[in-house]
Amino acid sequence: MIKIGVGVPAYKGVIAAGQSKMWTHFGASVVKNSGRVQLHAMFDVDQCGIDHARNMIVEASIAGELQWVLMVDSDTWCEPGGALVQMIIDAHEKGAAIVGAPVVMKDGVTANVFRYNEEKRLRPIVVEQSREMFEVDGVGGAIIAVNLKKVGDTRFRFTERTGEDLEFCHQLRQRGERVFCDPRIRTLHVDKPGILAYEP
């Protein structure tokens, strides 16, 4: 049985309207998969900056003796929400330390999924259609699930090299842990004036 929690970094207590339907589907999927997962906590964190919010979610989830915590940024959601439950189940079976769903970035082409190039620099990739998750070097934090049993002293933090989410992935990989992307999930991201969608 996988004990999971949900933590939403929601600065000023605001989340996208699309999340309401997502969480309804997510809850129904938890019930459907009650022999495999149990939802033990669901909370939001109104904290700035995002690195502090993510660390507060991780620390509270570890204190609550959870195995996995799912984070969905306040301006992002997916359809259907139940896909996030399957993402966690599959990542758990693969021994992943972190898994993320691809979210289209502002260029409208690449996703927040990264691999090292020849110069050993992380670069975003175009995520190809696939029926199963695959290993990557880094994944952005918009929609991620973290395996709390593999975190150790790893924490989110901004560095001169990269943002807080990719630094978290870097620390995990330095410890020999695995980072995955789940390309099966349709994600949406508020982008003024419209919405960016990743379509599997």
Structural class determined from secondary elements = alpha+beta
Order of strands in the sheet with most strands: 2-1-3-10-5-11-8
**End-to-end Cα distance:** 29 Å
CATH architecture: Alpha-Beta Complex
Shape: globular
Radius of gyration: 15 Å
What level of helicity do the residues show? 25-40%
- The CATH topology annotation reads as Spore Coat Polysaccharide Biosynthesis Protein SpsA, Chain A
Describe the protein.
This protein is an alpha+beta fold. It has one domain: Spore Coat Polysaccharide Biosynthesis Protein SpsA, Chain A (Alpha-Beta Complex), CATH 3.90.550.40. It is 26% helix and 30% strand. The chain has 4 helices and 13 strands. The protein has helices at 18-32, 50-63, 83-94, 164-174; strands at residues 2-9, 37-45, 68-72, 76-79, 98-100, 113-116, 122-124, 134-136, 138-139, 143-147, 179-181, 186-191, 194-198. A 7-stranded mixed beta sheet has the order 2-1-3-10-5-11-8, sandwiched between helices. It has a 3-stranded antiparallel beta sheet with strand order 4-12-13. Helix 1 (18-32) links the parallel strand 1 and strand 2.
